[in-house]
Design brief:
- The protein is of the alpha/beta class.
- The chain has two domains: 250 residues, 3-Layer(aba) Sandwich (Aminopeptidase), CATH 3.40.630.10; 126 residues, Alpha-Beta Plaits (2-Layer Sandwich), CATH 3.30.70.360.
- 33% of the residues lie in helices and 22% in strands.
- Strand 1 and strand 2 form a beta hairpin.
- Helix 7 crosses helix 9.
- The longest helix is centred in the N-terminal third of the chain and has 20 residues.
- The structure holds zinc ion.
- Zinc ion binds next to helix 3.
Length: 389
């Protein structure tokens, strides 16, 4: 049976409306209270405006080589979603707990906070850290402040487990990704004389066709660890133009790539930019010398590269009793931990299928399974005989 205190803490966390556009300071203050009562040592880092915070808590010795248990505090909006109950008032119905963030990822944070008093009582030989971040859902921007603070303070954890919803499977790889906006410039004119201007909407259409063609090329480079097993390019927002008989001066295409971790994202961008300017712009320059594509990366996160020798993979697999790991196609903070020199895996309660949706829920059983996993993980971590280093 799920511990009543775990459910109570998850309910409390869900009640803070930490949609990424809002402050998370109230949630952080509540976590601070619980963690300092348990005797953890706390560090905070903030966004430039000081309205959002990351929290980094340490149990045990203040040395390097710690185990980081990490999760984000922000959630995605509920706008336009049809919920059966108030998304910010958690509700247990049957074997499920409903609420925004139940799976992604306040369930995991609640399990951690409920375990804090127990962890504090252990005679820890090596540190156990909690890392709570902001703004994960809008490009993993918050955790970057936390990671650079650790680097500046020369705190060098040995590994990290990111508790994103994987139904407690060990995930050791994900693609890198970026949100990109391409502004298309044409020239206004009467649509009866297209050669005397340039329709930015027609140019944008050719640009999308270029993405489709390049996507087909990229699909020939495969890595079957991933699903789909290749780099994807998708345009899903497009706008531009004013009237059907006016050549459009401006258009805008928002697109993304999700690349295999060993692909160089800079190459994807430069191929698309070069092709657009060479093949498309060349044809429109006659009517509009200013015709151009201007591309800007709005957000990007690195991939998580699988490494069978990673201490994070070894420890998580040993504790989970699993001899294989998985890959996911969504982005997480794990790639940023890995890039800053901290081996990381993803393993957390709940299913990604419930994340970001109306009536998001987590099975209570997943919370129990997560608590049991973390108890074993920390015991193993603290056991001298553990095969790490
Ligand atoms: Zn998440």
């Amino acid at each position: 049976m799920t511990a009543a205190d775990t459910i109570a803490i998850v309910e409390k966390l869900i009640a803070f409306d930490t949609v990424s556009r809002n402050s998370n300071l109230q949630l952080i203050a509540a976590a601070r209270e619980m963690l300092s009562a348990a005797g953890a040592n706390l560090r905070f880092t903030y966004d430039p405006k000081g309205t959002k915070a990351n929290l980094f808590a340490t149990f045990g010795p203040q040395t390097g080589g710690g185990l980081v248990l990490s999760g984000h505090t922000d959630v995605v909006p509920v706008d336009g979603q049809e919920w059966t109950s108030d998304p910010f008032t958690a509700e247990v119905r049957g074997d499920r707990l409903y609420g925004r963030g139940a799976a992604d990822m306040k369930g995991f944070l609640g399990v951690l906070l409920a375990l804090a008093p127990q962890i504090a009582k252990l005679d820890l030989r090596r540190p156990v850290h909690f890392a709570f971040s902001f703004d994960e859902e809008v490009g993993c921007t918050g955790v970057r402040h936390l990671l650079s603070d650790l680097q500046n303070a020369k705190i060098r954890p040995a590994l990290a487990i990111i508790g994103e919803p994987t139904e407690m499977r060990v995930v050791s790889g994900h693609k890198s990704g970026a949100v990109i906006e391409t502004a298309v410039r044409g020239r206004e004119g009467h649509s009866s004389a297209p050669a005397l201007g340039a329709s930015a909407v027609m140019m944008a259409g050719e640009f999308v066709a270029l993405l489709t063609k390049y996507q087909e090329e990229l699909a020939s480079i495969r890595d079957d660890f991933f699903d789909p097993p290749y780099t994807t390019l998708q345009a899903n927002v497009i706008s531009g133009g004013t009237a059907v008989n006016v050549l459009a001066r401006d258009a805008r295409v928002t697109w993304e790539y999700r690349a295999l971790p060993d692909r160089d994202p800079a190459e994807i961008l430069s191929v698309v930019e070069q092709e657009a300017n060479a093949a498309i712009v060349a044809r429109y320059r006659g009517g509009a010398p200013e015709a151009a594509f201007n591309t800007q990366v709005l957000a990007a996160y690195p991939g998580l590269a699988h490494n069978a020798e990673s201490p994070a993979v070894k420890l998580a697999c040993a504790v989970a009793g699993s001899n294989r790991t998985y890959a996911v196609s969504y982005g997480t903070e794990a790639g940023l931990f890995q890039r800053s020199g901290i081996p990381a895996v993803i393993c957390g309660p709940g299913s990604i299928l419930q994340a970001h949706k109306a009536d998001e829920f987590i099975l209570l059983q997943q919370l129990d399974q997560c608590a049991a996993f973390l108890e074993r993980l920390i015991a193993e971590w603290n056991d001298e005989s553990v095969l790490l280093q």
